Amino acid sequence: MPDAPPLADPAALDRAMDAFAALAPALPLAVAFSGGANSSALLLACAARWPGQVQAWHVHHGLQAAADDFERHCAAVCARLQVPLRVQRVDARAAPGQSPEAVARARRYEAFEVLASTDQARAAIKTVVIAQHADDQAETVLLALSRGAGLPGLAAMPARWRRGGLVYARPLLDVPAPAIRAWLRARGDDWVEDPSNADERYTRNRIRARLLPVLQELFPAFRATFARSAAHAAQAQDILAEVAAQDLAACGQPPRLAALRQLGPARRANVLRHWLMAAHGQTPTQAQLAALQVQIEACTTRGHRIDLKLGQGRVRRVGEVLQWQAEPAGAAGTSARR
After folding, report:
1. In whole angstroms, how far apart are CA 96 and each of 64, 90, 100, 115?
2. Which of 238, 234, 223, 324 is nearest to 276 (CA)?
3. Average pLDDT of the chain?
4. DSSP string for 103-146
5. Which of 48, 169, 213, 330 is the 20 to 30 Å CA partner of 15?
6. Are 184 and 8 in contact (CB under 8 A)?
7. How far apart are alpha carbons 31 and 56 in whole angstroms?
8. Taking a C-beta distance cutoff of 8 angstroms, is the pair 167, 26 a contact?
9. Model-level pTM greater than 0.85?
10. What is the mean pLDDT of residues 311-322?
11. Using omega within 30 degrees of 0 as the cis cutoff, is the peptide bond preceding 255 cis?
């Protein structure tokens, strides 16, 4: 079993910030700032390293009575640091059947795009940094495993990516949560605690409260080993994406059935996933993809028909190619009755 570094070593945060600074992030940058421990540490560290080059972006989700208090705390911290604070209010309430975490995450990135689109920010902000850390990464891997996720899920959270013309980064992704709090305490800085983080109705919170302490006892280096596995998965997914792009170019867009049948099942599944996501923003379930594979294999005669429900629409054979078409609103119930 590999030796684990000290869990609450404040220097871990400084090492992570040194490594991030060595990548020469484009400045000025914005810190996603909730007022919690992690984003507080990231804001303080960034403001100290790049004075005058940092903004704080706070998303007011409107989900808790304490949300206004969070905003006031953020305003006080930013006033003390002389860091500009930008606030964006969103409605992050989940509809029945939606994941509250997924909805909040989607609204958060939408808010970042709004903040980045204003004249004031567009001329300045080049990088947005987010304070997710090693415990968050381990929780993400465990969530992916619990859901039977493929490589994209097992790859967990990237340390750096592009979205909407901005570079996003997670400088603290290798830093354990206890080290972040130890760093703040050593400086005498405080933060606010989000009460929803203790709500065990959410799976991630149950993992944090019940499973991570057991893993810490049995496998003290689990954060580093989980992150290494996630990195391997991300690398493998990158290769699969390259192969899928090459195969799709060979099969055509929309893909030709004869060309698809020339591929083995795994490679065909890979290119179908890539086509559906890249061209139509659809992610097939395992059952839907398996049914489509069966139909493609059987489609050797001119009269063979393909018409399968997939995502928010249907995959159909049109001549010698596959096409995906969105279903009109209300068509799902009609299809079910046929």
Report:
1. 18, 18, 9, 28
2. 324
3. 90
4. HHHHHHHHHHHHHHHSHHHHTT--EEE----HHHHHHHHHHHHH
5. 213
6. no
7. 5
8. yes
9. yes
10. 94
11. no
Give 201's strand partners: none
Task: Please list the residues that pair with 115 across neighbouring strands.
Answer: none
pLDDT (tens digit, 9 = 90+) per residue, 266-282?
A: 999 999 999 999 999 99
**Burial code of 85-118, b = ≥16 C-beta within 10 A, e = fewer?**
bbebebebeeeeeeebbebbeebbbebbeebbee
Tokens 């046929």: give the residue: 338
- The per-residue pLDDT for range 238-265, each reduced to its tens digit, is 999 999 999 999 999 999 999 999 999 9
- Name the nearest CA neighbour of 326 among 338, 337, 311, 305: 311
Tokens found for residue 251 = 């099969």
- DSSP letter for 207, please: I
CB 124, CB 26: distance < 8 Å: no
Q: What is the pLDDT of residue 102?
A: 76
Q: d(Cα 54, Cα 47) in Å, to the nearest integer? A: 6
Provide the pLDDT for residue 330: 58
Residue 274 CB-density burial (10 A; 0-12 exposed, 13-18 middle, 19+ buried): buried
> Could you tell me the two tokens for 279?
């061209």
When pLDDT is cut at 50, 70 and 90, the band that residue 302 belongs to is: confident
Q: Which residues contact 205 (CB under 8 A, 6 or more apart)?
A: 196, 197, 198, 199
Name the more confident of 65 and 144.
144
* CA separation for the pair 175, 35 (Å, rounded): 18
Tell the residue number behind the tokens 């000290």, with chain if given.
6
Close Cβ partners of 236 (under 8 Å, ≥ 6 residues apart):
151
Q: How confident is the model at residue 2, as a pLDDT?
A: 46
pLDDT value, residue 63: 65
Residue 92: which residues within 8 A CB-CB, separation 6 or more? 61, 62, 63, 100, 103, 104, 107, 108
Cβ count within 10 A of residue 285: 11
* C-alpha dihedral, 259 to 264 to 268 to 269, nearest 10°: 160
